[in-house]
Specification:
Number of strands: 9
Structural class: alpha/beta
Shape: globular
Length: about 290
């Protein structure tokens, strides 16, 4: 159950796979059903690998992915649900439009959190620097909004019309809700230190990893850089690498790395320690 405190929280939801994908629509539906005010604003088409590119939207010359919008407009929304929005540009452009225009219009206030994803395919290691999922989350964090970049090993690029109850997209949405709930309650804001995002990656959804309760969220680091310090936890002198955690078969372990929004590298010791303190009760240990 979502705490009462969270019922008034507002979330901007974006991705780099496109506004009509099953993954982002499943996340939006669950957030809305759980009492959050959720604005979805994402690219009109798949913009994977666009990193931090940002360019003014241009008028479309053809329909959006899966015929989800008509040609002619540079941005638009679902007329049956104005919380569903597209921008004919990159993920960073979409999240900036949501923060600058949609949030004041639809929420009358800034959002409390931005979620970028769930992405189809993980974003770890060097792929972090070219990921549109990471780029959008970094843009939000630089704008002063706590941000989660969420990516998944399992799933396909499918339209929202392919959604089915209890499919992999519903599972990913429930996992995202778990960490969002842990991050935003019951302790008061700030939810994350300034200029910080969480890079969250889900392992394959194969037995025994088929239900939300089977998974463990583990604090990790994105890169192996000598002579850098990280908080001691789970009896370790350094945080495990996210790649090692995700490659640990059958462990159902989810990597949670704390990134600096400017550099997209692992955040410093003090920032990691602050995140660990906020999520310590929620996080588990890796067997990797």
């Amino acid at each position: 159950m979502v705490p009462v405190l969270l019922a008034v929280l507002a979330v901007v939801l974006t991705n780099d796979d496109g506004w009509a994908t099953a993954s982002i629509r499943a996340q939006h539906a669950l957030l809305t059903a759980s009492g959050f005010r959720s604005i979805l604003c994402a690219p009109a088409d798949n913009q994977s690998g666009s990193g931090s590119l940002d360019y003014p939207p241009t008028a479309r010359t053809e329909r959006c992915q899966w015929n989800s919008c008509l040609p002619g407009a540079s941005l638009g929304y679902n007329h049956s649900d104005p919380m569903l929005n597209y921008v004919n540009s990159y993920p960073v452009t979409a999240v900036n439009y949501a923060l600058d225009t949609l949030a004041p219009k639809l929420l009358h206030a800034p959002p409390h959190v931005v979620i970028s994803g769930p992405n189809i395919g993980t974003n770890i290691g060097m792929s972090i620097f070219v990921s549109g999922t990471i780029g959008a989350a970094a843009a939000a964090a630089k704008a002063g909004v706590p941000a989660l970049a969420v990516s998944a090993s399992s799933g396909e690029h499918l339209p929202y019309t392919a959604l089915r109850p209890d499919d992999v997209f519903a599972l990913h949405a429930r996992l995202s809700l778990r960490i969002l709930t842990a991050l935003t309650g019951p302790a008061p804001p700030p939810f994350l230190p300034p200029n910080t995002l969480l890079n969250i990656n889900y392992p394959p959804t194969t037995p025994p990893c088929l239900a939300p309760g089977a998974f463990t969220f583990v604090l990790t680091r994105a890169f192996s850089i000598p002579f850098t310090n990280s908080p001691h936890t789970c009896g370790r002198d350094t945080l495990p690498l996210e790649g090692d955690v995700l490659a640990n078969p059958g462990s159902c372990e989810i990597s949670v790395s704390v990134l600096d929004a400017q550099t997209k590298l692992d955040a410093g010791y003090d920032v990691q320690a602050a995140v660990l303190q906020r999520l310590e009760v929620f996080l588990g240990c890796s067997s990797a």
